[in-house]
Task: inverse folding
């Protein structure tokens, strides 16, 4: 167990950040799945910027790596383009 007040605070804040990251990551994965299930090109192209924004926020907050975010965005963009 931690001996310093600052270490106890760090434990609390790390747990809060872990839960927030987990929630955001799970929500983004759900949005990606929802986009991949879409069959109408117009609907998917309207939803794509929302998902890309979510992925960018994960990368910005170091929840996922920048390259992984780029790969996800590339694959989703290709998918939406193939619906047309």
Result:
């Amino acid at each position: 167990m931690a001996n310093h007040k600052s270490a106890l605070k760090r434990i609390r804040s790390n747990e809060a950040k872990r839960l927030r990251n987990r929630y955001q990551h799970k929500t983004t994965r759900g949005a990606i799945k929802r986009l991949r299930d879409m069959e109408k090109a117009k609907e998917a192209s309207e939803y794509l910027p929302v998902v890309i924004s979510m992925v960018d926020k994960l990368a910005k907050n170091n929840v996922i790596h920048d390259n992984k975010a780029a790969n996800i965005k590339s694959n989703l963009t290709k998918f939406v383009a193939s619906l047309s």
In short: The radius of gyration is 17 Å. Residues 21 and 62 are 9 Å apart (CA to CA).
